[in-house]
Amino acid sequence: MATRLKIKTSEGDIIIRLYDETPKHRDNFLKLAKEGYYNGTLFHRVIKDFMIQGGDPNSKNAPKGKVLGTGGPDYTIPAEFIYPQLFHKRGALSAARTGDEVNPERASSGSQFYIVWGKIYKSAELKQLERQMGIQQEQDVFNQLAKQHHDEIMNLRRNRDHVGLQTLQDKLIEETKEKCKSQGKPTFTLEQNEAYTTLGGTPFLDNQYTVFGEVEEGLDIVGRIQNCQTDRNDRPSEDVRIETIEVL
User: Could you tell me if 124 and 206 are in contact, meaning their C-beta atoms sit under 8 angstroms apart?
Assistant: First the structure.
């Protein structure tokens, strides 16, 4: 049985469906919606051709100009990446989070979410993104391996053993190549290619943020909101309110 909810906003209604494949995010969103946690909050961060973000409890009755985006319950939700099955097509519902440098596990905010708008991509642009994802994959694997050899690296540095450092680096580069080869190069599926070249989205966020639902009706409302005037902190000049979120 699909879990569907109606986000009643000051701009109109958005019907979303939550994915069963991401149960932790589904259950948390349902719980907060039923408690009325989101009632009266704002879409506090809106970026044209990108996304609309809400779910900050501090945005309720927030005076004009107040910088928002840090509020939420005192917990995070473990990432649930179901990739490439669930991805950032236009209308995807995803969890916001803090950056990798303070959140390497990519755990989600307890309440903040965003709905993707993005743009329509050309096939050549997706190919370029795939190349960038390949470079990122190598970087991530190398960093992981370097972490495992942290003590050894520090020792070699302390002893100013440049030859030893170079030898270890060469070894880790080889291991990185092997590991990436066994993982396979990052490529977009046929379904992703189709969605990103016709419907649009934000493919560069895939596998970085948890996608846990999608818009079933009211994508035109999302389009209207992402197009609104904003201040320099990306907050809409005229408040866009979430009045209620009700389970259907």
Answer: no
pLDDT digits (tens, 9 = 90+) for 41-86: 999 999 999 999 999 999 999 999 899 999 999 999 999 999 999 9
Q: Is residue 98 part of a domain?
A: yes
Residues contacting 229, CB < 8 A, separation 6+: 236, 237, 238
Kind and range of the H or E element at 245?
strand 241-247
- 170's enclosing H/E stretch is helix 162-183
Instruction: Report yes or no on 190 lying in a domain.
Output: no
Residue 194 lies in a domain: no
**pLDDT computed for residue 185 by the predictor:** 85
Distance CA 56, CA 33 (A): 13
pTM metric for this prediction: 0.89
Within 10-50, strands assigned E span 12-18, 41-47
Segments forming the whole domain that contains residue 34: 3-119+199-247
The helix/strand count (H/E) of the chain reads as 6, 10
Residue 93 lies in a domain: yes
- CATH code of the domain in which 75 resides: 2.40.100.10
